[in-house]
Structures are given as C-alpha cells and as structure tokens.
Amino acid sequence: MLVVLVTHTPGHRNKFIDSQTAKVGIGVLLMMDVKTRWNLTLQLLEHADQLREFASEWLQNRKCSDYRPLFTSQDKCTIAKYVMEVLMPYQYWTLWISKWHTVRLRHIITVNNIMFDHVDCVMRAFGKKKNQWNEDLFFAGNLARQ
User: Fold this and answer.
1) Which residue of 16, 65, 104, 142 sits 20 to 30 Å from the alpha carbon of 26, by its own alpha carbon?
2) Sequence-ordered list of residues with C-beta below 8 angstroms from that of 82, at least 6 positions apart, any chain
3) pLDDT tens-digit map of 81-118
C-alpha cells in the first residue's frame, strides 16, 4: 500500500526521491510486486529493506501523517529478513539453471537435493523458536517439503 501512495502523484514521487538524494545521490522509488514472477518478491523485499529509512522520513511529513500506520514495524522487518533468507537460494538456483542452454538431469537432481537440504536447515531453525510467525513459516516450510 505504501508503494501505491508514494507513486500516486508526481509530488509524492518527487518528495520520496528528494528524501534520498542528500544521502545517496540518486533516489529510487519503491518497487511493485508482479504476481507472475515469484523471484521478484525477493528483490522487492531487499529493495524495501534498503529504502526503509527513507520511507520513514517521507512519512514524517505532516501531509503524510495519516499514512504512518503503513510503515513496517520492526517485527515485520525481521519476518521479511527471514523470508529473504529462505528465498535467496531459490533465486540463485533458478537464475543458475536459466543461464544453461542444456540442463542435464544430474544438474536438476543436484539442485533439488541442495534445495531440500536448505529447507531442512530452515525447518530446524524455525522449529527451535516459539512465536506465531515462526510457527507460520515452519508450517509453510512443511508444506514445501511435501
């Protein structure tokens, strides 16, 4: 929702970009998700994490005060970082396979084994922690494992 608000008008876009220019030189906008490209989700989360400070500054503007609840809490940022950690190998191996013109069955089996090992490792880590979002990720990981 915040990305829609930032890109809604030219004035909002310019203020968001201006909030970055003093610190990083070239400002960028938040990215919107595309449902048909699952690996874009990882890029979107990484991008949003990098722009979190600027989004906070932008929301401090008195004209945007009604939208401050849209800012991501620290708990949600922690969850997003766990999701990024889970998705990172999927993106790496998807891009690796897509660069090969001839992918052999042995490559697929190797990548498959690596991914299942990764899911097992994530499941062990999430299984140790006892809060709701970890249990939700643990449940999603079990579904992926099946």
Assistant:
1) 65
2) 126, 134, 137
3) 888 888 888 888 888 877 777 777 778 888 888 888 88
Sequence-distant (6+) residues with CB within 8 A of 90 are: 39, 42, 115
pTM > 0.85: yes or no: no
CA distance 137 to 73: 18
Domain match, 64 and 97 both: no
Q: Are residues 84 and 131 in the same domain?
A: yes
Q: Are residues 7 and 61 in the same domain?
A: yes
- Rounded to whole angstroms, the Cα distance separating 76 from 85 reads 14
Domains: count for the chain = 2
**Sign of dihedral through CA atoms 52, 55, 57, 59?**
negative
